[in-house]
Amino acid sequence: MAKNPIQWFPGHMAKTRRMIGECLGQVDIVFELLDARIPYSSKNPEIERLLGDKPRIIILTKATLASPELNRRWVEYYNRTGATAVLVDCLTGEGLSELSRAVRTVLKDKLERYREKGMEGRKLKAMIVGIPNVGKSSLINKLAGGKKAKVENRPGVTVNKQWVPTEIGLDLLDMPGVLWPKFEDELVGQNLAMTGAIRDQILDTEEIAMLLCGRLMECAPREFTERYKLSAEEVEGLDCYDLFRLVGRKRGFLISGGEINHTRTAEMLLEEFRSAKIGRITLESPERS
């Protein structure tokens, strides 16, 4: 197994950081998208510094893939810190009406000034920022009422900024996804890899899937063991490597000699976690952030 399963990160940080700084004055508000399954790990500390005191709404995306209980606790956590947080599913559109209300609340003073100047109805402008594959293009398409931005279920699709008009009185500025070049916390890198924010092609996916087995036993043992039909006796005392091999054997992913097909097992585990087939699972809680 590789000592470090995360070997390389996209190097567009400087260009995107410059674009954000140049465009910040053109927008009224920033939508900072975080993955609801890993709100802490998907929050780029560089973005925090770049945005300064610009009005902002934290949008917890992929909310229907995350634990409902932890969704609630994360929103409460951000509200306690004075931030405005909204749960959204960018594919189904769940939470978009709440987002529209949140915009009007956060920009209440500016909207009042527009009314006083007879500029009621003037379009607002919002910048969308976040790490790769967090759902920026999907959110834009939902708000725009059609397919306006390129969407794929892999990181790094948006490479340039683009303005998109919407049906809710907002013009949206989509920015490329920003991964920071170095992770101080190894757990952050693992979480990003597990959820698909880093391209699988540059990872040791078998190592990531093995680590995921251990994390699932910590965060969602019932969902994990039920999905793969693992008994309490079978999993007792197993480390993540042995859990991984047990799952592969249970699924019948065997090669000649009865050995486990590690590649198939890893691909299956990552796909089933990311699509919530194992269950609605969140890897981080506010108490540990």
User: What is the distance, rounded to the nearest whole angstrom, between the alpha carbons of the first and last residues?
Assistant: 29 Å
Strand content: 5-15%
Oligomer: single chain
Beta strand count: 6
Task: Give the helix level as a range of percent.
Answer: 40-55%
User: How many domains would you count in the coordinates?
Assistant: 2
Give the CATH level 1 class of the largest domain.
Alpha Beta
* The named CATH superfamily of the largest domain: P-loop containing nucleotide triphosphate hydrolases
| Strand line-up of the largest beta sheet | 3-2-1-4-6-5
How many helices?
Answer: 12
Structure description:
- This protein has a six-stranded mixed β-sheet with strand order 3-2-1-4-6-5, sandwiched between helices.
- The chain is built from twelve helices and six strands.
- The N terminus is likely disordered.
- Helix 3 links the parallel strand 2 and strand 3.
- The chain is α/β, with parallel strands linked by helices.
- The chain folds into two domains: 162 residues, 3-Layer(aba) Sandwich (Rossmann fold), CATH 3.40.50; 85 residues, Conserved Hypothetical Protein Ylqf, Chain: A, domain 2, CATH 1.10.1580.
- The longest helix has 15 residues.
